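Quick one:
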Amino acid sequence: MGVPTRDRLLAVLVAVLWGLNFIAIDLGMADLPPLMFLAVRFVFVVFPAILFVPRPDAPPRTVLLVGLAMSLGQFSLLYLAIAMGMPAGLASLVLQAQVLFTVLLAWFGLRERPRREQLVGVLLGTVGLCLIAVAHGVSAPIVPLLVTVAAAGSWAIGNVLVRHAKVTSGLSMVVWSGLVVPIPALALSLLIDGPAAVADGFASFGWASILGTAYTVIAASLVGYTIYNGLLARHPATSVVPYILLVPVVGIASAWLVLHEVPSVGELVGAAIMLLGVGVASGAFALRTRARRGPVGPDAG
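Output:
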C-alpha cells in the first residue's frame, strides 16, 4: 500500500520547515552571538516539553552522548560556521553530508557493511562536496565550509549512537538530549565572545532574535520532528527519507530569495552531484535493510 497523499504532503512540509530553518538561524543571530543563540534555542526546546515528553528508552549515558554529538556538536559548529560567513543556503546542503558520514561510521562502528550502491553514493557525494569546496574557495574563505562539514560529521556520530541504542521516539531523544546544550553553549559563548558580548546580546534581544528562536524551537524542532517521527512510525523509511532531500533545495532557494545568496555555477554543479550521491547512499541503505529483514511493514523505522 502506498503512502497516502496527506502523508506525502506532511513529508514535504517537514522538508520546507527544515529548509527554512537556516534562514531563521541567520535571522536569530542578527542580535545574538551564535553560541548564545544556541543556548537560548535549546532552553525552549527542552522546557516546557520535558515536563510532558517521556524519557527515551535508552541508557542515560547514550542520551548524554547523543546530546553532545547531535545537538551541542552539530549546532554549535553550524552556528559558528554561519556566523563566520558560511551562506545559509549552502550550509543546508553541505550539512547533508551527514548521510555519507553515517554510512561510513556505521560500517566501522556498527559493522554494518555497506553495499556497492552505498559506496557509489558516498563516492559521488564526496566528489560533489569537493567541487563545492573548490568553487566556494574561489570567492570566499574555506574555513566556514570546513566547519560546516565538521557539523555534518558530528550529526553522523549522533545518528550512529541513536541507531545503536534503537530509540523508538525521536522527539523524546531531541528533548531529553537537549538538556546538555544550554549551559555548555553559554559557557563557550562567554569564553569565545566574552562576557561583554553576551551581556550586549541579552540587552539587544530584539524581534529578529525572538522570531528566529521561535521558529527554530517550534517549527523546526518540535513540529518538524513530531511529524517526521510520526511518518516513520506509519511508513517504511524508504518512503519517507527521500523527501528530506528537498531540505537543501528549499534552503538554497529561500536563501537566494530572502538573503540574496546567489550560488555560483560551480557550487550548483557540486550541489547536484552531492545530492545525487546522498540520494543513492540513503536509498541503498533502505534497500539493504529491507533485504535483510524481509518485507518492510508499517511499523518500520
